[in-house]
């Protein structure tokens, strides 16, 4: 079974709490035992001294060890919590009140006895337990003198073996009951508090998971969903994740909208292109069928006329297909750019010569201003030539006979130059200027034009300039002319 983050956090905190409770109980047990030993030792601190002072045998120097042993046995019967020992000045046990077989050591360390009798250390002070090789216990002690000679020490263990056994049984039962009650109470309290805390801290994460699931079920369309509002600039990592998720959703929806708009435009483009393809194809089919069926009946003049019409429609069809492929290639983003430095005026003169026949046919005056320019630009010369050719061809098409076209080079102050193609042709309506770069849009001046063209030239021009990191601008007045301009990177020698 897979546990959620909420459950994993709860179990982790529970384990940590149990460890803390265990450490606390061990520490409390040690503190309680130390406190108990200190109080008992303090309570019986003068016990050995009182026995040594009040007992005749000890007052005489404990010369009769058997009698002293009998005395110890009698005292132990009266006080089973005590163990009585008499040791010599070297710590050797001379007599005692317990069964000889229980003795594990015959000598004890006198240092704790001296510390206790001379108040050289704070309580509790632990002395050797003769019934165990390493165990220490609290005690009461008093020196025994024969005249002025020290003959030994009365060594009384306050908490004897019988006392410890009885106390341990009772204390273990009490501690078990107390520990169980405290543990159960602490666990219940912890469980309730833990559920509340983790519910509060994991609630944003659950909301985020809910939003993700809702968005997935809605096909990643958030328009019909009410997602959780997240706090910006929050230090909470989940809120930061929520903000990132919200930005991602907006990005996905923006891309989906662009894809939908692109799909709509693609459908419209296919419909328009189908219509444009159908027209020359139908014309081609009609004239070819006429030539095929009435070839012998047609005069040479009629045959030549029909063939010229077929050729014209073929060229129009080829131009349309070429522009469709070019636009598709540009929109695919797989165009290679070759930037280089060249003279802009020289490129303009080359392009102007290419359109010499068209301008002479309409007696259009085309000029470059200034006529001698040394402006160097850094760009892709082939792509820039395509842009200028499209704009110049468009200007020639919409300029009447005896009209004028200017190619204007302006050097700007910020390592930029501006190229403007300006004509005094038919112009464009103000409400149509924002649409002229859309694919397949044909302005009213283009519709009135008798010459057929595809309407993709300005769309291709805009795409090419975007690749060259430039933006095209247009100014036009109906009946007075149009000016297209864009900036290029100027190279300063």
Description:
The chain is of the alpha+beta class. The protein has three domains: 162 residues, PAS domain (Beta-Lactamase), CATH 3.30.450.20; 95 residues, Signal transduction histidine kinase, dimerisation/phosphotransfer (DHp) domain (Helix Hairpins); 153 residues, Histidine kinase-like ATPase, C-terminal domain (Heat Shock Protein 90). It has 13 helices and twelve strands. Strands 6, 7, 8, 9, 10, 11 and 12 form a seven-stranded mixed sheet that branches. The protein has a five-stranded antiparallel sheet with strand order 2-1-5-4-3. A hairpin with a 5-residue loop joins strand 1 and strand 2. Helix 1 packs antiparallel against helix 6 and helix 7 runs antiparallel to helix 8. The longest helix is centred in the middle third of the chain and has 57 residues. It is rod-shaped and about 165 Å long. The two termini are 73 Å apart.
Question: What fraction strand?
Answer: 15-25%
The overall pLDDT, averaged over residues, is 78
Q: What is the CATH superfamily label of the largest domain?
A: PAS domain
Number of strands: 12
* Class derived from helix and strand content: alpha+beta
User: Sheet with the most strands?
Assistant: 7 strands, mixed
- CATH topology description of the largest domain: Beta-Lactamase
Structural shape = rod-shaped
Approximately how much helix is present in the residues?
40-55%
The assigned CATH architecture of the largest domain is 2-Layer Sandwich
Low-confidence parts lasting 5 or more residues at pLDDT below 50?
A: 447-454
- For the terminal residues, how far apart are their CA atoms? 73 Å
Q: What's the tally of helices?
A: 13
Given this structure, which CATH class of the largest domain is correct? Answer: Alpha Beta
Order of helices and strands: HHHHEEHEEEHHHEHHEEHEEHHEE
Radius of gyration: 55 Å
């Amino acid at each position: 079974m897979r546990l959620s983050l909420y459950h994993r956090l709860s179990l982790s905190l529970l384990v940590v709490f149990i460890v803390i409770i265990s450490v606390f109980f061990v520490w409390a047990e040690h503190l309680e035992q130390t406190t108990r030993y200190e109080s008992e030792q303090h309570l019986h601190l003068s016990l050995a001294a009182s026995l040594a002072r009040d007992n005749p045998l000890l007052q005489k120097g404990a010369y009769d060890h058997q009698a002293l042993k009998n005395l110890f046995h009698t005292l132990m019967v009266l006080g089973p919590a005590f163990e009585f020992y008499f040791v010599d000045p070297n710590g050797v046990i001379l007599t005692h009140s317990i069964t000889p077989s229980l003795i594990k050591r015959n000598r004890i360390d006198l240092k704790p006895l001296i510390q206790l009798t001379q108040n050289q250390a704070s309580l509790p002070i632990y002395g050797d337990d003769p019934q165990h090789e390493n165990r220490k216990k609290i005690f009461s002690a008093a020196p025994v003198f024969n005249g002025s000679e020290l003959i030994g020490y009365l060594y009384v263990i306050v908490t004897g073996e019988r006392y410890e056994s009885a106390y341990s049984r009772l204390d273990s039962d009490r501690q078990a009951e107390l520990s169980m009650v405290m543990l159960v109470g602490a666990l219940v309290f912890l469980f309730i508090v833990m559920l509340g805390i983790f519910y509060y801290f994991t609630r944003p994460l659950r909301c985020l998971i809910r939003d993700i699931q809702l968005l997935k079920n809605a096909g990643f369309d958030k328009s019909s969903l009410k997602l959780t509002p997240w706090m910006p600039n929050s230090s909470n990592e989940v809120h930061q994740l929520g903000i990132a998720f919200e930005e991602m959703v907006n990005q996905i929806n923006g891309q989906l909208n662009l894809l939908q708009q692109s799909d709509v435009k693609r459908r419209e483009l296919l419909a328009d292109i189908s219509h444009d393809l159908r027209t020359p194809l139908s014309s081609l089919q009609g004239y070819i069928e006429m030539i095929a069926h009435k070839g012998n009946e047609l005069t040479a003049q009629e045959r030549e006329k029909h063939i010229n019409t077929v050729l014209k429609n073929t060229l129009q069809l080829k131009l349309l297909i070429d522009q469709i492929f070019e636009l598709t290639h540009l929109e695919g983003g797989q165009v290679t750019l070759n930037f280089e430095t060249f003279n802009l005026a020289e490129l303009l003169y080359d392009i102007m010569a290419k359109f010499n026949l068209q301008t002479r046919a309409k007696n259009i005056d085309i000029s470059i201003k200034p006529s001698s320019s040394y402006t160097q630009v850094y760009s892709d010369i082939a792509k820039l030539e395509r842009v200028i050719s499209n704009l110049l061809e468009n200007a020639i098409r919409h300029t009447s006979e005896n009209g004028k076209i200017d190619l204007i080079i302006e050097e700007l102050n910020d390592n930029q130059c501006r190229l403007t193609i300006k004509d005094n042709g038919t112009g464009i309506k103000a409400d149509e200027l924002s649409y002229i770069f859309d694919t397949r849009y044909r302005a009213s001046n283009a519709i009135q034009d008798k010459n057929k063209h595809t309407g993709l030239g300005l769309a291709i021009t805009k795409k090419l300039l975007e690749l060259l990191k430039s933006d095209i601008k247009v100014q036009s007045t109906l009946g007075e002319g149009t000016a297209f301009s864009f900036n290029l990177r100027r190279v300063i020698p």
